């Protein structure tokens, strides 16, 4: 019995010693496990905080990126507006420079134009002077010719022919002694010398046919034989006198 008890007590003792050894170990393991759990929770919490901060940073970065893009777009738009304004300003400056250069060219050419205008003015004045001189010579020639036409006015009166200057240009030629029934009956016409030295006739009384008068006037202007014209006009009037039976 004692041997059996000893055999029984020995395992029990060893079991008690094992318990005494395992209890601190289990306590240490529990402490270690608790430490590990705490560390794990702390790590998880820290990781979650890091992740949350990272997400917030990403969100902020995205917002900053979008803000930057917006600013960039606005800046590009302003740059385009500035470029358009710069181009318009450049074109305006170039246009104004072109106008300025044109004005400079005109100013440069003004003395030449003034000289040309003076030359033209001098030529015109010379032409006017020449025309005045020509007109004066024509008037003198006309006056001389009219005076020649009126020469011997008194000499022709007894022949029944009279000349009378009615104004500066016209000369009235009268005939009498053509009608044997009325020696004082007048036959007359107006004649004038133009500036080109041609003759014109009007106011025939009594009227001579236009064809006959124009023919006589044409011959006068062709041959310039005034005496012959006077004689033929007198004959034309004489032919109009009715001779009594």
Features:
245 residues, single chain, cell division, coiled coil, centromere, Kinetochore protein SPC25, mitosis, Copper Amine Oxidase, Chain A, domain 1, alpha+beta
> Which stretches are low in confidence, meaning pLDDT under 50 for 5 or more residues running?
none
User: Whole-Å distance between the termini?
Assistant: 227 Å
Shape: rod-shaped
Q: How would you write the strand order of the largest sheet?
A: 1-2-3-4
Structure description:
Among the domains are: 76-157; 160-240, Chromosome segregation protein Spc25 (Copper Amine Oxidase, Chain A, domain 1, 2-Layer Sandwich), CATH 3.30.457. The N and C termini lie far apart (227 Å). The model has no long low-confidence stretch (mean pLDDT 81). It has helices at residues 2-149, 153-157, 210-223, 226-238; strands at 161-165, 170-175, 187-193, 199-205. It is of the alpha+beta class. The protein is rod-shaped. Helix content is 73%, strand content 10%. A four-stranded antiparallel beta sheet has the order 1-2-3-4. The protein contains four helices and four strands.
């Amino acid at each position: 019995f004692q041997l059996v008890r000893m055999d029984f007590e020995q395992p029990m003792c060893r079991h008690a010693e094992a318990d005494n050894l395992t209890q601190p170990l289990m306590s240490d393991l529990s402490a270690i496990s608790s430490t590990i759990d705490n560390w794990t929770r702390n790590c998880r919490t820290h990781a979650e905080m890091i992740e949350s901060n990272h997400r917030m940073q990403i969100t902020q970065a995205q917002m900053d990126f979008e803000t930057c893009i917006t600013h960039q777009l606005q800046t590009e738009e302003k740059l385009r507006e500035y470029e358009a304004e710069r181009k318009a300003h450049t074109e305006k400056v170039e246009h104004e420079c072109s106008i300025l250069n044109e004005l400079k060219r005109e100013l440069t050419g003004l003395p030449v134009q003034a000289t040309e205008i003076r030359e033209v003015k001098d030529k015109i004045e010379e032409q006017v002077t020449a025309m005045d001189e020509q007109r004066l010579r024509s008037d003198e020639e006309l006056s001389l010719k009219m005076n020649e036409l009126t020469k011997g006015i008194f000499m022709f009166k007894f022949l029944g022919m009279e000349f009378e200057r009615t104004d500066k240009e016209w000369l009235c030629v009268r005939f009498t002694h053509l009608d044997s029934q009325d020696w004082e009956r007048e036959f007359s016409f107006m004649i004038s010398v133009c500036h080109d030295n041609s003759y014109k006739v009007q106011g025939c009384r009594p009227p001579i046919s236009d064809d006959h008068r124009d023919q006589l006037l044409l011959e006068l202007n062709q041959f310039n034989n005034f005496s012959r014209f006077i004689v033929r006009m007198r004959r034309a009037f004489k032919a109009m006198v009715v001779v009594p039976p």
